Amino acid sequence: MTSTSTSRPVGELLRQWRERRRMSQMDLAIQADISTRHLSFVETGRSRPSREMILHLAEELELPLRERNHLLLAGGFAPVFAETPLNSPEMTSVREAIGQVLGGHQPYPAVVVDQRWNLVDRNPATGLLLRGVAPELLEPPVNVLRLSLHPKGIAHRILNLGEWRAHLLHRLRRQISLTADPELTELWRELDGYPCDQPEPEIGTGQGQIVIPLRLRRGYRELVFFSTMTTFGTPLDITVAELAIEAYFPANPETAAYLQHQHHPD
């Protein structure tokens, strides 16, 4: 949908997104406070929506900013959301915020990724996770999901690989359903084809678990982490909207003590 959206009528694209969100015309019309008849006319091309109507419907459908621009182009309007390079002067405050989060999370690992899980930045503590990874997987652009599940990546050190793999693939499938990004679909197919000699449980079936942990072998030790995802609030730039910070926290005192010791060996 992403790569061909501007060659299709805006009404057809809106209908496809509505169906992807599993909404009826009535559902969307009520939510957007317009008549079902008007929405039907927009979707069939009998009525040409204004710029404001396209943005209004896109907001109600919770579309990514990139897709809102595609809808505007399909409707004959100029895009309104910029995609500013992260290294540009206008993004200084964003870079500083990222640096503060990454630095403040030491001695625990944290990475910054874009929408397609390509590595944008990381803190030094992630070096602990990357030991033993094949050099070719660290050649830019580094994809952190590929790095996690590839047999020459971190996978051989993940003690609960089946559980962690099921979690990552489930999260990726959900993202695909929200964004319709064909590159993410290709990534999912690649990752799904990687070998795994452990059972992959259904998400949500872990008895007594609060979160799905990452159990990592480090020599004779087992390091256990859980992670959080942080995004920028109310972004109006595509680059910022597609950034996320994944921060790993120790899930037990032993892991915390080991990371603290690695950070301050004396």
Automatic annotation (TrEMBL):
Domain of life: Bacteria
Gene3D superfamilies the record matches: 3.30.450.180, lambda repressor-like DNA-binding domains
This protein's name: Helix-turn-helix domain-containing protein
Organism: Planomonospora corallina
A Pfam family of this chain: HTH_31
Record domain HTH cro/C1-type: where: 14-68
